[in-house]
Amino acid sequence: xxxxxxxxxxxxxxxxxxxxxxxxxxxxxxxxxxxxxxxxxxxxxxxxxxxxxxxxxxxxxxxxxxxxxxxxxxxxxxxxxxxxxxxxxxxxxxxxxxxxxxxxxxxxxxxxxx
Length: 114
Ligand code: AMP
Ligand code: ZN
Hints:
Layout: H1 5-10, E1 18-21, E2 25-29, E3 37-43, H2 58-75, E4 82-85, H3 89-92, E5 101-105
Antiparallel strand pairs: 1-2, 2-3, 3-5, 4-5
């Protein structure tokens, strides 16, 4: 989708601080970080919300989690812990309608998240 900011990052059309890329997945630093480490893991394919996932996407979403784990290990936050978040639609505060897994770490997280 040409008007989707995350599709454009995945296509290399707009700059991002990309820290991981493979055939299906890209990960880059959040532009407005909410923690010392705040990274977005996205599929290259445009999927609007996690409600749009199907059985065909089980491997893709599983691999997104494994990519997050790999990045957390490399960033040195795996031992202390980190948070993975999918925001879905309005009540969760979803702003970018291309699914993205937030990896947040490097500080103590609050619960409930607010
Ligand atoms: P969400 O509220 O779950 O839709 O989160 C969207 C996230 O994307 C926010 O944390 C934004 O700071 C982040 N974001 C938006 N535009 C960019 C961008 N161009 N590069 C990196 N992160 C972005
Ligand atoms: Zn998109």
